[in-house]
Write a structure and sequence with these properties.
Elements lengths: L1 H11 L3 H24 L5 H35 L2
Length: 81
Amino acid sequence: TLFAKVVVALLVGTSVPDYLQAQRAAHLTRMRELTAIKTASAATMTDVIAADYALAHLDADLRWIELTSQRLDLLRQEIMQ
């Protein structure tokens, strides 16, 4: 989904760096929420494992956002050919 949104943003002229930064901020907020769930005294093992799963996916997205931000000019050139 993130990849598709980045490509569409490039095609329509939307600021991709702004979009990626907003997405990064949203992911970090959600990661803080999930960490709070994991560390709550009432957290069950199911809560912890579910939060770990979501955190792993968000972490992968953050790494992808960072890489894509670094490669954005090359992607723009490729798409706009």
